[in-house]
Amino acid sequence: MKTLKLIGTVFALTLALPAIAADVGAGQKIAEATCAACHGAQGNKPAIPGAPRLAGQHEDYLLKALNDYKSGARKNGVMAPMAANLSKQDMQNVAAYFAAQPDGLVLKK
Ligand code: HEC
User: Fold this and answer.
1) Half-sphere exposure of 46 (CA within 13 A, CB side)
2) Distance 53 CA to ligand 1 centre (A)
3) DSSP assignment of 33-73, as one string?
4) What is the pLDDT of residues 55-88, one digit of tens each?
5) Ligand 1: does its nearest atom lie under 6 Å from the Cβ of 38?
6) Contacts with 20 (C-beta within 8 Å, 6 or more apart), sequence order
7) Which end of the chain is less packed: N or C, by CB atoms within 10 Å?
8) How far is the CA of 60 from the centre of ligand 1 (A)?
9) Residue 2 vs residue 29, higher pLDDT
């Protein structure tokens, strides 16, 4: 009985895992090829005025922002075409990459 319960728990946990796991290395490739021009390669050196820092931002926040640009729920003429080119997996990967970068979000002192 105990074993059965354990198998049930393991099965339930497996189902609870996100459907797609993030690949940080693949995210880095997208970041360096596309996003770096405005956000900096690590997302911590914005190269144009108005480009926010992405480094160290919460992964789920970044993912939501990208999804919203793609769906049109968040409107921005610069970011909409960027997000339009990304698949769900790309967004997951690039969000995981930027979330893991240093020297990101700061409080103004
Ligand atoms: C041509 C310049 C440019 C490029 C290239 C670019 N961005 Fe942006 N990004 C911006 C600007 C400007 C904003 C602010 C838009 C706004 O106010 O909603 C922004 C906002 C964002 C945000 C929202 C951040 C926040 O704090 O709410 C995310 C996430 C983001 N970009 C991710 C990316 C990713 C991922 C890529 C590469 C696939 C990328 N950007 C490429 C200019 C750019």
Assistant:
1) 9
2) 9
3) IIIHHHH-TTSSS--STTPPP-TT--HHHHHHHHHHHHHTS
4) 999 999 999 999 999 999 999 999 999 999 999 9
5) yes
6) 88, 89, 92
7) C
8) 15
9) 29
